[in-house]
Amino acid sequence: MKKTTGEPVYQGIYKELRNQIVKGELKPGSILPSENELAARYETTRMTVRKSLQVLEHSGFIYSWPGKGYYVSEPKHHTFTLEFQEDESAEQSSFREITMIRAGKEIGTLLGIGASARVWKIVRVIYQDGEAIAYDMKYIPYQKGMPTLEKEINYAIFPDIVSNQLPPFAFHTKMEIGLEALSEEAALAMKCSTQEPVMVLYRYFLDDKERCIGYGKKYLRKSYGRLKAQSGYLL
Amino acid sequence: MKKTTGEPVYQGIYKELRNQIVKGELKPGSILPSENELAARYETTRMTVRKSLQVLEHSGFIYSWPGKGYYVSEPKHHTFTLEFQEDESAEQSSFREITMIRAGKEIGTLLGIGASARVWKIVRVIYQDGEAIAYDMKYIPYQKGMPTLEKEINYAIFPDIVSNQLPPFAFHTKMEIGLEALSEEAALAMKCSTQEPVMVLYRYFLDDKERCIGYGKKYLRKSYGRLKAQSGYLL
DNA sequence: AAGTGGTCTAGACCACTGA
DNA sequence: CAGTGGTCTAGACCACTTG
User: Could you tell me the pTM of the whole model?
Assistant: First the structure.
């Protein structure tokens, strides 16, 4: 293929194939031309064609079946991406409180420790325009040799706290979104009526062996707004 | 590098580098050895090393800066993946109703059509163990030449409906998760008390020009359970 | 047996970054 | 300037699928 512009050859091939898929000329399940045929058609080599196909594969448009060929994928319209940043803009407007408590049965079970084990409890109230919109609770098992948590807690973003104990790529998070009534404790701190319905974000920080090393629960009042998620393909 | 097992060379290199990152020996922001140095160290070629690095890059562990080198990324602990399947298991237990209505102001605005335009409204109640757990509403602009929707509606999964009009890769979805009180209409159909708090999933089906071609609203009662999301890295 | 994708080699030229 | 990653070539051998 002639290089008429500064655009890499493989990107041109990628775009042509992608457009055929997006337009529906190549439907899910149908097979693509083979690497050799594409290489011949575009007057280039297999490796360059493979680069195009790998980009298509990563973008979710196609998959390969060794010995057979490349096929157009079924689009994953059920997979969403949700960005959840922890109160980055709310630093000043959030009030915090740190206490050391006994885990208790519920938290102890979640964290895989005894009910009488010591646990840091970190509480924040998130305000917006002078109104309390969320109530955040974090639970972290206490360990000897832990850095003075009170000092570090200024950066009470969850991943950062956990990162003090584990390398940052050594853990992952599971999140659940549910519905509850506001607890008395939270209602009191937010100065609103108890039993008010709220969305709840449950967060589990897990190490590589799926052991829970941190648990968070966050009440979101209606005024917090909606959580947003996206599904789709990069065009 | 000697091939002692059937494992590809690039996978071995990938795993070694990945383990160093996961263990924290290579921290976010630090630079990796250059392609040439890795090629020499593993007694292979640049192209093979590049394959390893590309896998690492796709997995989110590193990024490249042309002219400088490869660097360890900051882990994205704030990006979650949420799978939301539409009631696939509930086929038999869901009741449906299809009507054609005038869009009205709210729906008309969302769909970018006039308030008096015709719109299909598709309603389903989702049951589980004899109890209504969710109430689903979908709105789709009526168009001439549309296939008989009543017939197609047996497959009333949203992406499939939209696919009748557009190729399956030509649209994407935005979703929002919020909190509301149950509408009278929904409470009536589900035989529960009106004003009951529920989670709400708002879904917007958008074409490549961000025009809304379908809108959905789904009430989830507490008994529906929690939505689940994950963030993390493949090890 | 012929065709497919998966892996790998040993070069090449380019644009870019930093000393 | 030397070093880096980005692109590209023209081959090669392998395991797998299909007729």
Answer: 0.91
Q: Where are the extended beta strands (E) located within chain B? A: 62-65, 69-72, 79-83, 95-102, 118-128, 131-141, 171-181, 197-207, 212-220, 227-231
CB-based contacts with strand D under 7 Å?
Answer: A 1, 3, 8-11, 43-48, 51, 65-68; B 32, 34-37, 46-47, 50, 64-70
Asked if A23's CB is within 8 angstroms of B230's CB, the reply is: no
* CB neighbours of residue A81 within 10 Å: 16
> Is the shortest CB-to-strand distance from B8 to strand C under 7 Å?
yes
Question: Which pLDDT score, from 0 to 100, does residue B149 have?
Answer: 56
On chain A, the residues whose CB falls within 8 A of the CB of B169 are: 21-22, 24, 61, 75, 233
The pLDDT tens digits of the residues spanning B112-134 come to 999 999 998 989 899 988 899 99
State the smallest CA–CA distance between residue A217 and chain B in angstroms. Answer: 13
What does the CA dihedral B3, B5, B10, B15 come to, rounded to 10 degrees? -130
Find the radius of gyration of the CA atoms of chain A. 25
Checking each nucleotide's C1' against the CA of B63, the nearest proves to be D5
Q: Cβ contact (<8 Å) for A172 and B230?
A: yes
Strand bridging mode B118-128 / B131-141: antiparallel
Specify the pLDDT at position A32: 98
Q: Are A79 and B79 a contacting pair at CB < 8 A? A: no
Task: Decide: residue A184, CB within 10 A, 0-12 exposed, 13-18 middle, 19+ buried.
Answer: exposed
Q: pLDDT grade, residue A2 (50/70/90)?
A: very low
CA of A124 to C1' of D19 (A): 68
Across the interface, whether the CB atoms of B231 and A167 are under 8 A apart is answered no
Nearest to A62 by CA among A72, A53, A74: A72
| Minimum-distance CB partner of A81 among B79, B166, B180 | B79
pLDDT tens, residue by residue, A127-173: 988 899 999 999 988 876 565 556 556 556 777 777 777 899 999 99
Contact B87, B126 (CB under 8 A): yes
Beta-carbon contacts of residue B54 (< 8 Å; ≥ 6 apart): none
Mutate to test the interface with A, among B47, B195, B231, B233 (most CBs of A within 10 A): B231
Q: Which of B186, B207, B167, B198 has its CA nearest to residue B121?
A: B186
For residue A215, name the pLDDT band (cuts at 50, 70, 90). very high
Which residues, 6 or more positions from A159, have their beta carbon under 8 angstroms from its beta carbon? A168, A173, A205, B75, B77, B78
